User: Fold these one by one.
Assistant:
Number 1:
Amino acid sequence: MKLHHWIVLLIALVVVGGLVLWPKFQSKDVYTDELTGTWRAEGTSENDYQWWMEYTFEDHDYTLATDSYYKEKGTYLITERFLDGSMTVKKTFSDGSKEYEIVVVTTDDPDVIQLDGAILNRVKK
């Protein structure tokens, strides 16, 4: 083979390799998962009933525990993000038989979110 054939072959390999590898470099999730961690809310009702709820989000899995022994375990997916920082999150639980969408409202404090009307604080470990 002549030199110019080798050069064309090398350029072709670089172009094909770039086309194959380009999606792998571009498929990074541009958003961080702000929900990762444990979040807790607690309070006292008008009847002096003390309540609490605790969400733990990690790697698209979540658990919910409450004072009433209600527990929930499933997966979550951030389906929509809004300009104000809030997001729609789809929870799937009960072995995939139930789905529920919640709106998570973020605040200026990265350790505080509002979820289902409750203000949750990130639990520091």
Number 2:
Amino acid sequence: MFGLGPSLWCWKTKKKTLLDPTDTPVAELEPATLFAWIEALEAYARDWDATFENRPSYFTQEFWYLLVGCMVENLKGQPLTVSAACQRMKTGSNRTREERLKKAVDDGYLVKERGGEDGRVAVVIPTPKLESIMRAHFARTFEKSREVLFRAKN
């Protein structure tokens, strides 16, 4: 996903990357590596909050699956239907999920459009605003994760 591809071989260094699952079994990781991973996860969560201007209404679990799912499926050329977008969220009643979707639309992160072959299906499309901030968020957090894991390994 997002251009990482199935290979864990780094073309630049001609070595296995830090993300290679055959490198060290997770149960045998040194505490420093675990602490680095915790640091990376915390940085990810903090960056998510900052990406959405620290608004408490965009807590990670509540919106992550919705926003990321809509973005990824749209990039694949298969925008999610309203129903599928609501089902991407892991928590909340149907009404709560629909309210979250409405909030994301009202805040300019998603738009609802008519789609499908006959135009009768409502699909959810990420706005350029959402794509821009999400790409930046993923780039920052990928770099931070790579940085802390590299530091822990060396």
Number 3:
Amino acid sequence: MATHKITLTRYGIAEVLKWCIERNHKNIPGTDSAAFQRMQAELKKKPDSSDYFTLHQFWKEPVTIEFTDEEIHTVDRCLYDNPNAENNQNPAIRYRFWVATETAKEAETQMEKKGH
């Protein structure tokens, strides 16, 4: 199973978790996998400080998380289906997962051409 490393800020992680966990209402399965657990663990590292600078540094710090193709598909589905069900705009963070998905499709196409 192919995996892809995707770098997100913690702001981005919070946005993904909002649509994939909090507002999913168990409509889309697969949100309990390793990548989702890692994202939840990252947000639990939030400092107890109320200092703006400290919190801002925490939220904008980039984090690289490894996703399987299935997890990428789940995230993309969550970021599309759930906002649409609530008549909300699709989150901009969605494009981060298109790149990985398209890379996976290109790799599959190349493998098919080579006959592997």
Number 4:
Amino acid sequence: MNSKTLVSNLKGLFYIALVLQVAFFVSFAFKWIDISPTPPLVSVVLERYALLITLLGIPGSLKLFSMIMNKNNHPEDNDITTDVYKKAFVTRFGILFLVATMNIVLYAISFNQNYMLLTLITFTAYIFSYPSNGYLYANEESIQQDEEEKKKLTSNKK
């Protein structure tokens, strides 16, 4: 798949997921959609685990993206690089999506402000997962620079 097509498809996925989550979040916040039971069923233990999952999930997903991209053994091959980028992006964005969805649902059930803040923090982390051509093109440029340096070294030896 072409890198421009891949990035545009990932941007579409990004915007659809973000708009859906923001729409549900706003609907729950203004009580346009009410799914909360009369006595709140969310315990303090669940709140602590949700905080832990959120605080580990955000940097973990960003670090996992970096680790997957660094395992690319063939950076000179554009097809392999785009496949690895797609896999890394979907993994990172999927983790962030699940964390945000968990916090939105817990906020809708309990209306606890902590879940609202955790959701907003996760939405802020979405900024760091926006798909970009920059990484793919930077990879291509670094390969070209390496090839030019090798040519210079071999021409200087002769």
